[in-house]
Amino acid sequence: QVQLVESGGGLVQAGGSLRLSCAASRRTFSNYVMGWFRHVPGKEREFVAAIRGSSSSTYYADSVKGRFTISRDNARNTMYLQMNSLKPEDTAVYYCAAGRVAFIGTAREYEYWGQGTQVTVSS
């Protein structure tokens, strides 16, 4: 079992930045693909970014490419999402997820989920 705890959400003006963190409880953190998804009520959960444990290869949704950066610190069992140039349409609850994933962008591939952290971008 892996427990994930997100932090770092909040309210920011358009053009601003936030850094989300996801702390994992398990020492085998480095074995898992880690991802960020976001959800807006009435819409499906949307893939944002992911990073592999072994190679640290990164993947991004087109909507955030060039603005968001995903990273991980395996020694601290922590993953990060640096979000720059935020837009009102980035407003959502952001979830971190972990799993032995074949399809990076597919939410159901991830076994473990955090409780979510709210990000609100005002115009």
Annotate the secondary structure layout.
Layout: E1 4-7, E2 10-13, E3 18-24, E4 33-39, E5 46-51, E6 58-60, E7 68-73, E8 78-83, E9 92-99, E10 112-113, E11 117-122
Parallel strand pairs: 2-11
Antiparallel strand pairs: 1-3, 3-8, 4-5, 4-9, 5-6, 7-8, 9-10, 9-11
Descriptive account of the structure:
0% of the residues lie in helices and 48% in strands. A hairpin with a 6-residue loop joins strand 4 (33-39) and strand 5. The strands form two sheets. Strands 2, 4, 5, 6, 9, 10 and 11 form a seven-stranded mixed beta sheet that branches. The chain is built from no helices and eleven strands. It has strands spanning 4-7, 10-13, 18-24, 33-39, 46-51, 58-60, 68-73, 78-83, 92-99, 112-113, 117-122. The protein has 123 residues and is mostly beta strands.
The major beta sheet can be summarized as: 7 strands, mixed
Q: Strand-and-helix sequence, N→C?
A: EEEEEEEEEEE
Helicity, as a percent range: under 10%
Q: From the helix content, strand content and strand pairing, which structural class follows?
A: mainly beta
Oligomeric nature of the chains? single chain
Uncertain runs = none
Name the overall outline: globular
End-to-end separation: 40 Å
Number of helices: 0
* Strand composition percent: over 45%
Radius of gyration: 13 Å
What does the average pLDDT come to?
93
Beta strand count: 11
